[in-house]
Amino acid sequence: MKIEAFALERWMTRYETDVAYDIAESGIAPLSTRDLLDLLPGDDRQATVDELLDIRLGYSEAPGSAALRGALAATYAATGPDEILVTTGAIEANYLLFNTLLDPGDHVVIVAPAYQQLLSVPAAIGCRVSRWEVRPEDGFRFDLDALERLVTAETRLIVVNSPHNPTGATLDAADLRRVYAIAASVGARVLSDEAYRWLDHAEGTAPLPTMRDLGPLGISVGTFSKPFGLPGLRIGWVAGPADVVAACWGARDYVSLSPGKLNDRLALLALGHREAIRDRNRAIIAENIETASAWFAANSDLVAWRPPAAGLLTMLAYAPDVPSLELANRLAEEASVMLAPGSTFGLEGYLRIGVGQEPAIFREGLERAAAFIRRVGEGIPTRAAWDAGVRSTSGVG
């Protein structure tokens, strides 16, 4: 398979270990192993430490441990352990699904912009890809009528991601059911990248249905990276029909073989304390959104946004007529602030911002970003789109 360079990941790799203020981060502030263990009462904590220290670091169960698959299956309405495959992050889950479900020439409808993998892998397989655009001029909202127009009798797969990376757009329960119905009308499957599941912003918010729960054509992909703050575990999963899961497992034999045994056990520990982690995440998100809202209001001549209703990401529109890649590079190199260039998503004039960072880092990163963008913009014309009213037409501000 010949595939194009992964623009965002290469850009992130260039800066993410060096900058002091990463406010482009797509996940919640990571937990440490100690943080996880501190969720346990004293006696259980010591017993768990001893158990972890005694784990022999041999190969794990190839599809993931029975305990973890069972616990993940229980988070869905009617899914058993044999309908779960534990993977090396959501990125492997998506890769396996695309290569299992699709053949050259197949028609696929994919939300766009998107985390580049979702578009690039089907294209590299040789599929005919139709982009379901989430547009600035529509206020970064999903247009279900547009999706219906894109789907044909030849469509094999619809790929969705909600809450959406990078815009923060969200499909509500009725929208998700309509997506499933559109797919079912032509016998297509739906692959839902649910990396931001459980990242709701307020206690008591009704959980959105997962695509897996909507019917046999629905496939959900999950991860411990974003909602649990555990990207270093490299643990994700597929939840889908048993035949699809078995086929993905067969393909994974040639890729990573099995998840790490210690990672699997730590993931199970985190899943068992999901509500405590969820409360911690809500507190971080609430503080950062309050900080960001005040910052955007104070700098409304320079920047604008639409706060994410769920998840962690949205797009920051800026006034100076500077290419987003140039601005993002200079922010990282000269101000030690990381905001991802919108050009990596085909959204020029924007930077991607995440609200999951540690609040002190987030606050200082915003202040540094404002001072830097303001200085860069001195004597530079504003972007034509900004002058034309970007804050209203793009849904930000």
Structure description:
With 397 residues, the chain is an alpha/beta fold. The protein has 15 helices and 13 strands. It has helices spanning 7-15, 33-37, 42-54, 66-73, 89-101, 117-125, 144-150, 173-184, 242-252, 261-272, 274-298, 324-335, 359-377, 384-387, 390-393; strands at residues 21-22, 84-87, 107-112, 128-133, 155-161, 189-193, 218-223, 236-239, 303-304, 313-318, 337-338, 340-341, 350-354. It has a 7-stranded mixed beta sheet, with helices on both faces. A 4-stranded antiparallel beta sheet has the order 9-10-13-12. Strands 1-11 form a two-stranded parallel ribbon. Helix 4 runs parallel beside helix 10 and helix 5 (89-101) packs across helix 9 (242-252). The radius of gyration is 21 Å and the shape is globular.
What is the gist of this entry?
The chain is of the alpha/beta class. The protein contains 15 helices and 13 strands.
Write the topology of this structure.
Elements: H1 7-15, E1 21-22, H2 33-37, H3 42-54, H4 66-73, E2 84-87, H5 89-101, E3 107-112, H6 117-125, E4 128-133, H7 144-150, E5 155-161, H8 173-184, E6 189-193, E7 218-223, E8 236-239, H9 242-252, H10 261-272, H11 274-298, E9 303-304, E10 313-318, H12 324-335, E11 337-338, E12 340-341, E13 350-354, H13 359-377, H14 384-387, H15 390-393
Parallel strand pairs: 1-11, 3-4, 3-5, 5-6, 6-7
Antiparallel strand pairs: 2-8, 7-8, 9-10, 10-13, 12-13
| Number of β-strand runs | 13
Q: What's the end-to-end separation, in Å? A: 42 Å
- Major sheet details: 7 strands, mixed
Radius of gyration: 21 Å
How much strand? Answer: 5-15%
Give start-end ranges of low-pLDDT stretches. Answer: 392-397
Order of helices and strands: HEHHHEHEHEHEHEEEHHHEEHEEEHHH
Number of domains: 2
CATH class of the largest domain: Alpha Beta
Instruction: Give helix % range.
Output: 40-55%
Query: What structural category do the secondary elements indicate?
Result: alpha/beta
Relevant CATH superfamily of the largest domain: Type I PLP-dependent aspartate aminotransferase-like (Major domain)
